[in-house]
Amino acid sequence: MTVFIAPDGGPRCAWAGGAPEFLGYHDTEWGFPVSDDRRLFEKISLEGFQSGLSWRTILAKRNNFRQAFAGFDVHAVAEFTEADVERLLQDPGIVRHRGKIEAVVTNARRAVDLESEAGSLASYFWRFEPAADDVDPPQTASTSPASVALSKDLKKRGWRFVGPTTVFAFMQAVGLINDHVASCGVRAAVAAARSAFTPPR
Q1: HSE-up (13 A, CA, CB side) for residue 106
Q2: Which residues contact 134 (CB under 8 A, 6 or more apart)?
Q3: Which of 30, 39, 108, 162 could cysteine-pair with 74, CB 3.0–4.6 Å?
Q4: Contact 142, 136 (CB under 8 A)
């Protein structure tokens, strides 16, 4: 699999060379395990917004999304009203797609319910971490049995814009799997972080 040679001379996953802003995201965020509920809710929300668009578009607007959605505090977003939806539809700093905006609000309400049941979003999501022998070689799949299972369970709970492909991208990003290619210079750091990480179950 081809890699991108970064300015420091080290190899990275090929996609990290796709845009200038990708490298920092790849090196410091993508694949590192996340246990913070706000970050988890932000990531699954942004993956939903990314559906049908480029990740570069979403990443460029990430700070705007954070401002628009109260820092992705699920309790704050769960209180959004139709007036908030209409306000966000006028916000040029985000993706103005009614279905996706409404999905974030709906998902926040379902997330509050999930927190009550599971204790935290992190404890829920990390239940779906696949066993090492159930993971495909890095960047060879766009879904997995684990992403299908998580997607199905979220949909059953009333979540929206959480199809298996969207959920797989979420799992890659928040460290539920290490999908850095074998020759990527960051893969070992992600592996070490995952080894030191205690899933909040």
Answers
A1: 15
A2: 144, 145, 146
A3: 108
A4: no
**How does 39-51 read in b/e, with b if 16+ C-beta sit within 10 Å?**
bbbbbbbbbbbbb
Q: Over the Cα atoms of the chain, what is R_g? A: 17
106: exposed, middle or buried (Cβ count in 10 Å: 0-12, 13-18, 19+): middle
* pLDDT per residue as tens digits for the range 165-180: 999 999 999 999 999 9
Known catalytic residue at 25: yes
Please indicate whether residue 47 is annotated as part of the active site: yes
**46: closest CA among 179, 146, 174?**
174
Q: What's the token pair of residue 75?
A: 């309790």
pTM of the model: 0.96
Q: Counting every residue, how long is the chain?
A: 201
